[in-house]
Amino acid sequence: MSAAQSPARKKVVVFDYGFGNVRSAERALAHVGADVEITRDYDTAMNADGLLVPGVGAFAACMRGLREARGDWLVGRRLAGGRPVLGICVGMQVLFGRGIEHGVETAGLDEWPGTVGPLKAEVVPHMGWNTVRAAADSQLFAGQPADARYYFVHSYAVHDWELEVGNEHLAPPKVTWATHGEPFVAAVENGALWATQFHPEKSGDAGAQLLTNWIRTL
């Protein structure tokens, strides 16, 4: 196939709102064949094939940064149009209804109902490699062995999945779980909105496969 006949690479924006390992995400996405741009420009992010929302640090600080960069509008408008969004780490947590840190409650984007709260474990933060229990028929984890390990760094998590889908015409979300002291939500696939609590960009070959699987859906 000539260069003129080669399929165009998918354009993915890593949303740069001040919280997240944007360079690591950029390198990982480029490694698996995406055309990547780091930006907080609203129109560029809105028009990309895929949007990756990273996040590190405190829930409240990430939400403040997102709102200042119009990330709340961006995520909502993309999803309203069925345009793919992938949240990572705190970029996943802010998709839920609220976060509670040190007794302080902060409203999230509320794409999913639920509360992000402290992990109850002997060792916190949960830092290092862990396995997951992938949802049945998961697209995100397609081709991955059951014992694949992913890199986590977090002290807070979602412990209960609260979204109920009562419409028989809507596919129920696919929820993947992990355990560190207690079970928590490790990943979600819900229409155009996917998210991981772990860092695929730091998870070696297993993470690269996940990002490849996401890009294939764009």
From TrEMBL:
It is found in: Cytoplasm. Signal peptide: none annotated. Pfam families: GATase. The active site is at 89 (nucleophile), 199, 201. Residues 13-214 form the Glutamine amidotransferase domain. It catalyses: L-glutamine + H2O = L-glutamate + NH4(+); 5-[(5-phospho-1-deoxy-D-ribulos-1-ylimino)methylamino]-1-(5-phospho-beta-D-ribosyl)imidazole-4-carboxamide + L-glutamine = D-erythro-1-(imidazol-4-yl)glycerol 3-phosphate + 5-amino-1-(5-phospho-beta-D-ribosyl)imidazole-4-carboxamide + L-glutamate + H(+). Its EC number is 4.3.2.10, 3.5.1.2. Pathway: Amino-acid biosynthesis; L-histidine biosynthesis; L-histidine from 5-phospho-alpha-D-ribose 1-diphosphate: step 5/9. Keywords: Amino-acid biosynthesis, Cytoplasm, Glutamine amidotransferase, Histidine biosynthesis, Hydrolase, Lyase. PROSITE patterns: GATASE_TYPE_1 (PS51273). Its main location: cytoplasm. Heterodimer of HisH and HisF. NCBIfam families: IMP_synth_hisH. IGPS catalyzes the conversion of PRFAR and glutamine to IGP, AICAR and glutamate. The HisH subunit catalyzes the hydrolysis of glutamine to glutamate and ammonia as part of the synthesis of IGP and AICAR. The resulting ammonia molecule is channeled to the active site of HisF. PANTHER family: IMIDAZOLE GLYCEROL PHOSPHATE SYNTHASE SUBUNIT HISH. This is Imidazole glycerol phosphate synthase subunit HisH. It comes from Streptomyces lunalinharesii. The gene is hisH.
